[in-house]
Recover the amino acids of this structure.
């Protein structure tokens, strides 16, 4: 991986993006995070977020600081990554039922209502959004994408660490990446 390359970790909320960031960090890749959002019961290992990402549509001034590092970018903002940079995107997938269950539990933990949007409607919106995002990713020449399934990482972290390491040009410590995977955090299963 060249030092100019930016590694983007993306996926739907609760799809395993924080776990992937933890794996990359353990493997030796520098992480771009401001640690404003701290670990909690829903993400006991941390969220690995960088607040300026939320303003990506208006603010790209931080991107040079992300070169040679990994940063989380929500799927809705991927389209705002300027094409004058090169990116390697690790896109996390997870069973929709698990995503919805994990989000529901997060709302319960925060004391927020869980019935604002029907699960079937939310699942349909998420599926449509992911399909559109994946189609867009496939058309971009300034980025490469590796799709990683959350349950595959938990089932065989060594195999997935090897896939990720190959995607990032063999620069990571696979053993450390595997050790960063905590199967105890797989709490909502399909």
């Amino acid at each position: 991986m060249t030092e100019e390359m930016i590694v983007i970790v993306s996926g739907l909320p609760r799809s395993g993006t924080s776990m992937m960031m933890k794996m990359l960090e353990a493997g030796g890749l520098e992480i771009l995070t401001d640690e404003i959002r701290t670990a909690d019961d829903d993400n006991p290992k941390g969220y690995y977020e960088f607040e300026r990402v939320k303003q990506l549509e208006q603010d790209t001034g931080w991107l040079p600081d992300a070169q040679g590092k990994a940063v989380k970018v929500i799927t809705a903002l991927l389209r705002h990554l300027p094409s004058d940079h090169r990116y390697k995107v690790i896109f996390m997938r997870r069973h929709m039922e698990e995503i919805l269950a994990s989000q529901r539990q997060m709302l319960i933990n925060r004391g927020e209502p869980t019935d604002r949007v029907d699960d079937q409607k939310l699942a349909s919106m998420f599926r449509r959004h992911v399909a559109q995002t994946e189609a867009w990713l496939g058309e971009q020449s300034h980025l490469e994408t590796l799709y990683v399934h959350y349950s595959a990482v938990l089932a065989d972290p060594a195999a997935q660490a090897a896939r990720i390491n190959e995607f990032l040009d063999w620069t990571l410590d696979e053993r450390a990446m595997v050790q960063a995977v905590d199967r105890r955090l797989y709490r909502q299963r399909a």
Remarks:
- The CA atoms of residues 100 and 119 lie 7 Å apart.
- The first helix runs from residue 17 to 26.
- The chain has a mean pLDDT of 89.
- The domain at 6-183 is CATH 3.40.50.300 (Rossmann fold).
